Amino acid sequence: MQYRTMGRTGVSVSALGFGCMRFPKTESGAIDRPRAVAMIRSAIDAGVNYLDTAYVYHDGTSEGLLAEALADGYRDRVFLADKLPTWMVHAPEDFDRLLDEQLNRLHTDHIDFYLLHALSRARWRDIVLRHGLPDKLRAARAAGKIRFIGFSFHDTNDAFHEILDGFDEWDFCQIQYNYINTDAQAGQEGLAAAAKRGLGVVIMEPLLGGRLANPPARVASCLPEGVPPVQAALDFLWTQKEVAVVLSGMSDETQVAQNLAFADASRVGKVPAADFAAYGRAKAVFDHMALVGCTGCAYCMPCPFGVQIPAVFAAYNRTVADGMKAARAAYDALDGAADRCRACRRCEQVCPQHLPIASLMTQVREKFAPQDASAT
Question: If we measure between CA atoms, which residue out of 99, 175, 176 comes closest to residue 133?
């Protein structure tokens, strides 16, 4: 395992972090606990020391699963990152209640890296500042409940800088970044700005919700020759000195083993300039082909009307990447297609990508509308 310094904290963290949002599931949809525990422990045994969870992951069960995995001395071997669900804070005292609940769920007396979850300009102004959460963070740190203070982010670059400038005690931040999202949200500029200020930068969505693990052939053909797409996407991040940790939400044992091998081979400056330029060409092709920028995070789920939102968008995107026949087969197999959408827009309020989901569902319905047999 390769290790990097997490900004001004001085802490040495593994280049690969274990994201605890995409554990393997049983047929009922619950976490497959024995498999998930074994995967986490195998990653720790191989040198991973940064584990990232959140109050809402896996419908609120991720923290408890992590507590189980970190028993038997494993907690002492890792840095634990967790996130305050800012949208659940309606009064200052909610901060303390939620943090204490998280500590209880995790069976620990402290969280090493504590983040304000999914900040946007609106949440920064209307929740964080309104309820005095910076003071709450300082108090929690003084009490030993948290060690380092950070935030995860989904909004525009301007909003990122407002938050970055709004509190002078940030230790780290977590941003969505990959070779497609170089100019989206915080982007490459935000990465550099945060690192310049001494913040450790954690990367989420390095594979764009899995879409870069098996990219369309035209995109893959642009990537550095002879390098598997997953490794190419991760190397793009690890070659940049500003990146401290790259999170991967691993959902099976093969992914764990492969990512450990890729992390072992990672280095700052590993990708030569000629190969790095290939990522720009891959992005140009991908952007031309992309229809919906859904990462499959499933924050929008469950839909009250049964729409399988990420799966619907995955099928829709396949109309460009794989052709209409394959896309229609994937769409027709869904139990919860776009025609169930009632435009309640509840999903849009929590979508980290700020997608106009209801409007997009109309486009999907039109795309997959049954063809008139008399016209063929």
Answer: 99
* Angle, vertex CA 150, rays to CA 19 and CA 261, nearest 5: 30
DSSP secondary structure letter of residue 355: -
* CA atoms of 336 and 32, how far apart (whole Å): 24
Q: Report how far apart the first and last C-alpha atoms of the chain are (Å, whole number).
A: 59
Residue 282 neighbours by CB under 8 Å, 6+ apart: 179, 180, 215, 219, 220, 222, 223
pLDDT tens figures, 201-220: 999 999 998 889 999 888 99
**Residue type present at position 105:** R
Please state, for a pLDDT cut of 90, what percent of the chain lies above it. Answer: 80
Nearest to 188 by CA among 206, 175, 198, 199: 175
In order of 9, 46, 56, 75, 156, the CA distances from 51 in angstroms are: 17, 13, 15, 10, 27
Cis peptide before 229 (omega within 30 of 0): no
Closest CA to 157 of 197, 198, 123, 189: 189
Torsion of CA 209, 212, 216, 217, to 10 degrees: -160
| Mean of the per-residue pLDDT values of the chain | 93
What average pLDDT does this structure show over 102-124? 97
Taking the model in full, what pTM does it have?
0.86
- Within 10 Å of residue 197's Cβ, how many Cβ atoms? 14
Reduced to 3 states (helix: H, G, I; strand: E, B; else coil), residue 64 is helix
pLDDT above 50 for 374: no
Contact 170, 164 (CB under 8 A): yes
Chain-centre distance for alpha carbon 269: 24
Q: What kind and span of H or E run contains 80? A: strand 79-84
Q: Is 259 helix (H, G, I), strand (E, B) or coil?
A: helix
Task: Return the pLDDT at 274.
Answer: 85
Q: How far apart are CA 187 and CA 180, in angstroms?
A: 10
Provide CB contacts within 8 A for 228, sequence distance 6+: none
**Nearest-CA neighbor of 317 among 332, 327, 307, 329?**
327
